[in-house]
Amino acid sequence: MHASTTFAVSILFALPCAHAWGVVGHATVATIANNYLTPGAQTYVAGILGRDVSMASVASWADDYRYTTAGKFSAPYHFIDAEDSPPTSCSVDLSRDCTKSGCSISAIANYTTRVQDTGLSDTDRMEAMEFIIHFLGDITQPLHDEAEEVGGNDISVTWDGETTNLHACWDTQMVEKIAGGENSTATVDSFANTLIAQIDNGTYESQKADWISCVDITTASDCALQWAQDANALNCQYVLQNDESGMELDGTYYTGAVPYIELQISKAGYRLGAWLNALAAAA
Ligand SMILES: *[C@@H]1O[C@H](CO)[C@@H](O)[C@H](O)[C@H]1NC(C)=O
Ligand SMILES: *[C@@H]1O[C@H](CO)[C@@H](O)[C@H](O)[C@H]1NC(C)=O
Ligand SMILES: *[C@@H]1O[C@H](CO)[C@@H](O)[C@H](O)[C@H]1NC(C)=O
């Protein structure tokens, strides 16, 4: 491989660091959510997104939009920079951590209001729905609830010998390794079905009620804060527990991370389903 190609490839690998769960993670969250929609919610979502548009296909729209001139304002909505001290102390505090430009919590509240506002244009409501589908995924990625080293973006690590960063590995490389590939309908559906089986009759059966203990769309900000706190705690429990700087993550670290990633993606999907069911019931 030419040096210039190597450079281009490493830029490509570094890019997803700015995203949340990568494309596979977000599409899996949306696919899980879709499985739990009531018939009324299926009609509601289709009425807003368009009849032939799957939630999975729009789940990463917000990541493309944030890099456009029109969508730049939405970049801070993908995370909340918790100014805590992992691994000693983890916490999210809305007044401390949500800046004037907004954060995931204010964005979830805003778009939950907007998607219900029939006075808005169809496009505005569609965008609100697409933001909700995306941000309920983002908020379960622990490094999206963390200011430390720019949510791990500044922690340089290697993945299978390639230089990348901790945040990118959580968004993309580790998720793709668990799912068994890059973005494709087959990969996403199979990963989602594995997790749905755990939610219905497996590991998560007894936990799933906790995941949706707060799905009150009239107190969206309170619920979103709880979701952020829940994910942020994992930074102390595992994600930032040791000094990961310079570590090769495709090994022991990955093995230890798998249960957390599967849990967080399952939780996001199940919760998103419940959130959309609540929106449909209120419509
Ligand atoms: C709510 O969303 C709209 C549309 O994207 C945006 O213009 C507005 O600034 C947002 N408000 C808040 C408080 O985030
Ligand atoms: C992911 O794959 C699906 C199925 O091939 C496709 O429709 C979608 O556009 C892809 N998403 C991205 C962001 O590339
Ligand atoms: C698994 O759970 C689903 C959903 O709750 C239920 O419909 C199905 O009958 C269960 N299957 C088994 C084998 O328990």
Description:
- This protein has 283 residues and is an all-alpha fold.
- It has a single domain, classed as P1 Nuclease, CATH 1.10.575.
- The chain is 58% helix and 3% strand.
- Strands 1-2 form a two-stranded antiparallel sheet.
- Strand 1 and strand 2 form a beta hairpin.
- Helix 9 crosses helix 13.
- The radius of gyration is 18 Å and the shape is globular.
- Bound molecules: 2-acetamido-2-deoxy-beta-D-glucopyranose (NAG) (3 copies).
- One 2-acetamido-2-deoxy-beta-D-glucopyranose binds at residues 102, 106-107, 110, 114.
CATH architecture: Orthogonal Bundle
Number of E strands: 2
Write down the overall mean pLDDT.
93
Query: In percent, how much strand structure appears in the residues?
Result: under 5%
What is the gist of this entry?
By secondary structure, the protein is mainly alpha-helical. It has helices at 3-14, 23-35, 39-49, 55-58, 61-65, 94-97, 104-116, 122-138, 166-179, 185-201, 208-211, 220-239, 252-282, and strands at 156-159, 162-165. Strands 1-2 form a two-stranded antiparallel ribbon.
Question: What's the structural blueprint in terms of helices and strands?
Answer:
Blueprint: H1 3-14, H2 23-35, H3 39-49, H4 55-58, H5 61-65, H6 94-97, H7 104-116, H8 122-138, E1 156-159, E2 162-165, H9 166-179, H10 185-201, H11 208-211, H12 220-239, H13 252-282
Antiparallel strand pairs: 1-2
Helix pairs in contact: 2-8, 2-10, 2-13, 3-13, 7-8, 7-12, 8-13, 9-13, 10-13, 12-13
Bound molecules: 2-acetamido-2-deoxy-beta-D-glucopyranose (3 copies).
The site of one 2-acetamido-2-deoxy-beta-D-glucopyranose (NAG) has 2 residues, from helix 10.
GO molecular function: endonuclease activity; hydrolase activity, acting on ester bonds; metal ion binding; nucleic acid binding
Protein name: S1/P1 nuclease
Family: Belongs to the nuclease type I family.
